[in-house]
Amino acid sequence: MPETLLEQHAEALRLFGERVRAVKGDQWDAPTPCAEWNVRELVNHVTTEQLWIPPLVTEGRTVEELGDAFSGDVLGDDPVAAWDRASAAAHAAFAASGALDRTVRLSYGPALGSAYCSELTADCVVHTWDLSRGIGADDRLPDGLVEFSVKEVMPYADGLAASGMYAAPLEVPAGANAQTRLLGLVGRKG
What we know:
This protein is mostly helical and 190 residues long. Helix content is 56%, strand content 4%.
């Protein structure tokens, strides 16, 4: 089981990549639990998130400086290759010496590289579930990644719905497993 933040990040990327490679040709337009995104749009979103990491973390650039550099379709004719390139570069940026201790200037303000990495790791875990649902794959997530993500999301779960990017948290039954709790925190029914 991954123990360090970088191991958790690598595992989340690997898991999402497995699902990307499992998308069949006729599934790219399939719906996902993210009502505004089909499978291709969801993969494009997560790939775009990875593309932001090297310039923000390694180069110290700002969201404002980058502007719309990563808007639109970043997947092109080979979504798997686009994902592989983006995720490898993102992980390399976070794994670089001192990267997790750097201040990164994000759209909502400055954050430590470690906090940015944690946020994107949890986001990737949740979107792996979304993608799994969209393509009809096994949607069980590894316990370690789920526990990590619950701890990451819990402090700001109520604010996610206010951002307009997530549904309101859902009530989950007492004694629910960690995956059900995670999904509830981000407004998804498991």
